[in-house]
Design brief:
Length: 325
């Protein structure tokens, strides 16, 4: 067993102990609201992990737990309406992901507890990591910190890369700092970098056309509700333009993308369920520290690499967590 796998196993076991110690039949039925970026069907892996976390804490859907799921489906302007709807339903807690969705939930209520299943820069929405304050806490995704590493790995996988593009929705408050990190990482590797700001499906198509016109040799895809919603289209466009791309989560690679280096989102959702459990048992979100990710995944799609003429070097093979054929 590799050392990384062993440490992940130990960390995972430790993370589950609070569930196992506190798991018991809840004495009342609770309603959990979920404000998401994509549909429940497309978010099934994360939802399964969340439900498993609830089960470990003693909550079973249909018995002592009900879930109200709402998705903006890539349309940021819908978050406020959906968040307000969940508040009107009098949910006991709101679970959400991504800065725009969290901010919408904050605008909708300063009383209902909000648990972030994942957010790139928690300090945008909380007072501090140790003492979040207010009604919000949750899990960090390290997206700003990890995007520079994605640039490095893309360069290692594509040694002749000289110019790359970040495709991201700069309307997302998390995106400008990620662009700064991308530029810094590219500069350290003597790479040119360009930003393509995308706000809708047509922008995404246009971005890949511009990438070809501007002789971009690689793509860094930002994590946002828009890119998540149009994941398959992004993967297909990268393949059509023969552009190596690094993605913000494993599901892009499972859909045919070249590579990703990111947190394990199912792991974050599992742990977020533990925070929901604490809140439902009376702990204020203000007193629950924001947690950092403990499980990172480096994933490569070998079929996509071969189609792009990329030979995966031994240095990559030694570090990759999952090879998809």
């Amino acid at each position: 067993m590799r050392r990384r796998d062993f440490l992940t196993l130990i960390a995972g076991a430790a993370a589950l102990r609070p569930f196992e110690a506190g798991a018991q039949k809840a004495s009342k039925a609770y309603r959990v609201g979920i404000l998401e970026t994509i549909s429940a069907a497309r978010n099934s892996a994360n939802l399964d992990a969340l439900r498993e976390g609830f089960r470990l804490a003693g909550f079973v859907e249909g018995q002592n737990l009900s879930i109200e799921y709402r998705s903006a489906d890539g349309h940021e302007e819908r978050y406020d309406e959906l968040a307000s709807e969940l508040v009107r339903l009098n949910v006991d807690v709101i679970v959400t992901r991504g800065t725009p969705a969290v901010q919408a939930a904050q605008r909708a209520t300063n009383k209902t507890p909000i648990i972030m299943a994942g957010i790139g820069a928690p300090l945008i929405v909380v007072d501090s990591l140790r003492r979040p304050g207010g009604n919000v806490t949750g899990m960090s995704t390290f997206s700003e910190e990890l995007i520079g590493k994605r640039v490095e790995l893309l360069k290692e996988l594509v040694p002749n890369l000289s110019r790359l593009a970040l495709i991201h929705n700069i309307g997302n408050p998390m995106s400008p700092p990620e662009w700064e990190r991308t530029k810094a990482a590219a500069n350290s590797l003597s790479l040119g970098a360009v930003l393509f700001d995308v706000r809708n499906e047509e922008d995404l198509r246009r971005a890949f056309e511009l990438a070809v016109q501007e002789r971009v040799g690689g793509i860094v895809v930002g994590g946002d509700g828009l890119t998540q919603t149009h994941m398959q289209m992004i993967v297909d466009l990268a393949a059509d333009k023969a552009l190596p791309a690094t993605h913000p989560s494993r599901d892009f690679v499972e859909a045919g993308g070249l590579m990703s280096y990111a947190v394990s989102y199912p792991d974050l959702y599992l742990r977020a369920a533990g925070m929901v459990d604490k809140v439902l048992k009376g702990t204020a979100p203000a007193d629950i520290p924001v947690e950092q990710p403990t499980k990172l995944e480096f994933v490569i799609n070998l079929k996509t690499a071969r189609s792009l003429g990329i030979v995966v070097p031994p240095s990559i093979f030694l570090r990759v967590d999952k090879m998809i054929e």
